[in-house]
Design goal:
158 residues; mainly beta; Porin; elongated
C-alpha cells in the first residue's frame, strides 16, 4: 500500500560548522509535509526551527576579514527545505530513506556574521519503523555545507 500524503513532526539537534554551536535555550522542532509518488520515491518540504543559541562564535564581520578569537553571541536559526526522498523497504515495517535537496536558511545573530542567510544543497539518510498502518518513528541525519542535524520524529501517513 502506498499512502499519498504524510506529515512529520520532529526534534533536531544542529551544529553550524566552524561558526556557532546551538544550545538548549529552546527545543528545536521541524515539520515536514510529504507526498509519496511511488513506494520507492517521495517528495518533501520541511520547515525547521533549529533553536536559539547563546554561546560563543567567531568574530568575522566580512567573508575575507576574520578577527582571531571568539566573542559572545546570541541568535536563532531557521530553514525551509525541499527534498527528493528515495526509499528502500527491508520488510513491511523497516525502511531506509535517503534525502537529496535544497535548503534555504536564515540566521538572526548578534554577530556581524559573514553569512546571515543562504541556500545550499542538503543530503541525508534515515531509518523508519512502522508502528501501525499510519504511524511511524524515524531517526536520521541531514548534512549541509554549513549545518549538520540529527533528527528524530513521528510520521503520520494518510
Amino acid at each position: 500500500m502506498v499512502e499519498s500524503g504524510r506529515v512529520d513532526l520532529g526534534y533536531s539537534e544542529s551544529n553550524l560548522d566552524g561558526f556557532l554551536t546551538l544550545n538548549d535555550d529552546q527545543t528545536p522542532v521541524s515539520v515536514t509535509l510529504g507526498y509519496q509518488a511511488a513506494s520507492y520515491l517521495g517528495i518533501e518540504i520541511a520547515w525547521a526551527d533549529h533553536g536559539s543559541f547563546n554561546g560563543i562564535g567567531f568574530n568575522c564581520p566580512a567573508p575575507a576579514v576574520c578577527v582571531a578569537g571568539t566573542v559572545p553571541a546570541k541568535g536563532d536559526l531557521k530553514s525551509v527545505s525541499v527534498f527528493a526522498v528515495p526509499q528502500w523497504h527491508f520488510n513491511e515495517r523497516i525502511s531506509a530513506l535517503a534525502k537529496l535537496g535544497i535548503s534555504r536558511w536564515d540566521l538572526s545573530s548578534s554577530l556581524p556574521a559573514p553569512k546571515k542567510d543562504g541556500t545550499e544543497f542538503v543530503y541525508g539518510a534515515s531509518l523508519r519503523l512502522r508502528l501501525t498502518r499510519s504511524l511511524e518513528v524515524q531517526a536520521g541525519v541531514e548534512i549541509a555545507e554549513d549545518r549538520d542535524s540529527a533528527l528524530v520524529g513521528l510520521r503520520w501517513s494518510f
